[in-house]
Every structure is written in C-alpha cells, then in structure tokens.
Specification:
- With 88 residues, the protein is mainly alpha-helical.
- It has three helices and two strands.
- The protein has a single domain (4-77), classed as Erythroid Transcription Factor GATA-1, subunit A (Erythroid Transcription Factor GATA-1, Chain A, 2-Layer Sandwich), CATH 3.30.50.10.
- It has helices at residues 4-7, 33-44, 68-77; strands at 24-26, 29-31.
- Strands 1-2 form a two-stranded antiparallel ribbon.
- Strand 1 (24-26) and strand 2 form a beta hairpin.
- The chain is globular and about 35 Å long.
- Residues 1-5 have low confidence and may be disordered.
- It is found in: Nucleus.
- This is Nuclear receptor domain-containing protein.
- InterPro entries: NR5-like (IPR016355), Znf_hrmn_rcpt (IPR001628), Znf_NHR/GATA (IPR013088).
C-alpha cells in the first residue's frame, strides 16, 4: 500500500515538499505543519545544512527528516518564501 495515499486524498491537499496532509497556507504555499516549522526554524536561525549524499535525496513523508539540506532546497524550489519570517 503506497504511503502517499495515506497522507491525503487529493493532490491539492498534499504538501508540495513532502506529500503529507496540508494544514494551511504557510510562506506562500499550502504546506503541512512539519514543513512549515522546519522552514521557519531554518530561516530564523540562519541554519546551513550540507547533504552527505549527492544533493538529490528523496523528500517524502517518511524520509523528510533524513536530509535537511535537500528538504530546505525542496522548500525553496517549490516556492516557499522567506519574506515575513522575523529573525530572532
């Protein structure tokens, strides 16, 4: 049974970063709570991540925590915007 179908029923209800169920619009896109929080923490804390593989890691609901670099790059590539995030 594919995990993608467990997360959301319609493609528009899926987080464009990881495929989990969307909780609302965050930073310009409909995303899940997990990706919203990850993106906010990364930008606020000015984190710099490095991929230990080829820079093309699979980012899905199950594997989203394995590579922060590739996850953040995917956040940016799908259109999440840093505007509006206040820095600590």
């Amino acid at each position: 049974m594919p995990l993608e179908n467990d997360a959301c029923d319609l493609p528009t209800a899926c987080c464009p970063v990881c495929g989990d169920k969307v909780s609302g619009y965050h930073y310009g896109l409909p995303t899940c709570e997990s990706c919203k929080g990850f993106f906010k923490r990364t930008v606020q804390n000015k984190k710099e991540y490095h991929c230990t593989d080829t820079g093309a890691c699979t980012i899905d609901r199950v594997h989203r925590k394995r590579c922060a670099h590739c996850r953040f790059q995917k956040c940016l590539s799908v259109g999440m915007r840093t505007e509006g995030i206040s820095f600590l």
